[in-house]
Amino acid sequence: MQPSMSLNYAASLSKYPDKGVLGKEELIDSATKVEEKVALLAEAIRRAQKIVFITGAGISTSSGIPDFRGPNGVWTLEEKGLQPTINVDFDLAKPSFTHFALNSILKSGKSCYVISQNVDNLHLKSGFPRERLSELHGNIFTERCLSCGREYLRGVPTKTIGLKKTGRLCTTLKSNNRPCRGKLVDSVLDWEDSLPWDELAESEYQCSMADLCLILGTSLQIQPVGNMPFKTKRYGGEIMIVNLQKTRMDQHADLVIHEKCDKVFKLLCSELEIKVEEGIANLPCSNELRVIKEAYRSDPPPVVKYKVKRIKVCTEDDIQSVNIKTKNDDSDKNGSTIKTTNIALKLE
């Protein structure tokens, strides 16, 4: 059997000794327990105003794309001299029910954001909008301009990974009505490549503002994604996990469901009365490049975040004291400056 493009991607990565813990036992909760936990998850989604989904390889295994560290993962079997039995090319893979469900939850009116560690393009194939998605490890179907940062979606996978030049030039017109002509590179990271700062900054911002961080199909062994849920917890939000294996975040989570993501989301969408549409998005043809993300500035913009942490009503003079934590990024591009401001609000 010929290796698929998804297996070739794993083989194309540089040699790296520390791939994390491989082959951890997979756990399945009882059917009764899953139903009880899904009901709790549905309640959390109903009360949440902003939701962040952090997705990993576990949401794509039902699409025929193997994971990496599971009992039948690429790297787990590699240590035994074996290859996964599932073997679907990226360009032939179809989104899973979970991919479609995330898009349907967004369409239902919920404020949602997806932080993906996958490179398989299945979130975009499901119709999930690019502006509500961070692809931190890249996308095997996209190229990015080194000059202006515009991102192009292709109809076929790139032939390289590791931010290598593809031989194409950026054709988008600049303000002077001339094409940019910046060199395009593939967007998929190799082990030592830095994460795209714009995607990373947006991911951290979304996590800090979320009322609910829902972790799907990932053991969170890769940083900095593995620590992002702490930003939600720090600002008073909830952490919930759907994964077959135990994760390092389990002890901090408000809810952990050990079950396949597709099964959980079928029960969840039924509980929420959300109809899941499973149509494939309109993608470029094989020789087409389509702009899906506009240019970014040369330096990260300052990020200012406000989050109400505690409200205390005072009896004296009918004054409501609100403790607001303000994160101001003006002095630190990593957003580490924290200021606390007390604001007195007169009750009507």
Question: Could you explain how this protein is built, in words?
Answer:
The chain is α/β, with parallel strands linked by helices. The chain is about 20% helix and about 25% strand. The chain has helices at about 5-10, 30-45, 75-80, 95-105, 120-125, 195-210, 230-235, 260-270; strands at about 50-55, 110-115, 135, 140-145, 150-155, 165-170, 185, 210-215, 240, 255, 290-295, 305-315, 320-330, 340-345. A six-stranded parallel sheet has the order 3-2-1-8-9-10, sandwiched between helices. It has a five-stranded antiparallel sheet with strand order 6-7-4-5-11, with no helix packed on it. A three-stranded antiparallel sheet has the order 12-13-14. β2, α5 (about 120-125) and β3 form a beta-alpha-beta unit. α6 runs parallel beside α7. The longest helix has 17 residues, at about 30-45. The radius of gyration is 21 Å and the shape is globular. The model is unreliable at about 295-348 (pLDDT under 50).
